[in-house]
Design brief:
Blueprint: E1 2-3, E2 8-9, H1 19-32, H2 41-45, H3 47-68, H4 71-83
Antiparallel strand pairs: 1-2
Length: about 80
């Protein structure tokens, strides 16, 4: 939770089954098999790849939307937020 004088941001998680934890434990065990050293869950989950894949998909999506706009419409829509 991050709280200020006027608001707060809260992220929560609720599990409806222990299966999700068992799946995570199995994934971690498979990851660590025949390895040595110190690892964190971010290594197991490969969060850098997940984030990179997400950002690439967003860029492709944004690129398609921008290409579909007429040139004069693109200029108008891109600057509307600036003028507001």
């Amino acid at each position: 939770m991050i709280a200020g004088d006027y608001d707060k941001i809260e992220i929560s998680h609720e599990s409806f089954s222990r299966k999700v934890f068992a799946t995570g434990a199995l994934r971690a065990a498979k990851f660590i098999h025949e390895k040595s050293g110190y690892y964190e869950m971010s290594d197991v989950l490969n969060l850098k790849k997940v984030l990179n894949d997400y950002l690439e998909s967003e860029n492709r999506l944004f690129g398609r939307k921008a290409a579909d706009l007429k040139p004069d419409m693109a200029d108008t829509e891109m600057t509307e937020g600036i003028r507001a």
